[in-house]
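Hi Q.,

Before the meeting this afternoon, I wanted you to have the iron/sulfur cluster prediction in hand. No need to reply - just skim if you have a minute. The sequence and ligand are here:
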Amino acid sequence: MCEFCLKHGEGKKWYLQAANYSDDLLNDVRRRKFIKKFFTQTDELKKSIRKIDSLSKTPAIIKAVIGRLVTGKMKKNHFGQVVPIEDIERIFDFVNSIVRVACMCRHAILGKEHRFCYGVSLYPDGGAFGKIIDGLDSSFLGGPDISAMEKLTKEQALTAFRDHEKQGLCHTVWTFGTPFIAGICNCDRADCLAMRCTVTAGVPVMFRGEYVADADSNKCTGCRQCMRLCQFGAISYSAANKKIVIDQTRCYGCGICRSLCPTNAVHLHNRADVPAAANLW
Ligand code: SF4
Ligand code: SF4
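Predicted structure with the ligand bound:
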């Protein structure tokens, strides 16, 4: 269990607790202010990209201090966790609205609209979070001819998430004033600020998933399709055995490597049951 499961989930997966999606949490003024600022800060995001990229040239000791400050601040406001599709489906089972919106990271990095992000709410109309967003100038979230918020059914959303996996995008849940959860993103290292910060720069702004993968060597044919998808460099290929090997100390438990496996050779296990990875978050 990650730190948030203990603090915000009573020892269960925190992102599966409906209370963490409740409008009650939006009675908090600080949280509402954070949400308003978050969705109007595209220039700040562009600055963040430069700061994250400069971390790779920063001396290790300074980077460690900056990293602790950034991670601590993000844990209070906007922290994420990798979530495999079976747990995304569980979230979709209890929320009552799912909307697809343009991704702020892709907007900041690529200057284009790409609809890889989803708002979720317990309330059919998006609840108080939806009202806050509606009151902002979020025109960057949609072009002139399309609705900024596309409403989806659970089935439509799951189909979209399966397509995202085949493109190599891993699913992540996000807080907006922790522990309030309102968003699920589909991330890769090239275009997602959180992935760049966590994986490339080594400053965590999201937890690894509650799972770890392993491959059944009896089923693996060595086709290497899974290697194309892993965003975390956790899969290598043994030319001698003609099979892949998963480094569980690098695995984030996203499960997307399963989506192209023709033999169903990869399985997820509870992180807590895998000694090599149980304490890696
Ligand atoms: S996709 Fe499946 S069969 Fe192919 S290398 Fe990966 S684990 Fe093995
Ligand atoms: S090996 Fe681990 S991190 Fe890589 S795609 Fe598979 S589940 Fe995700």
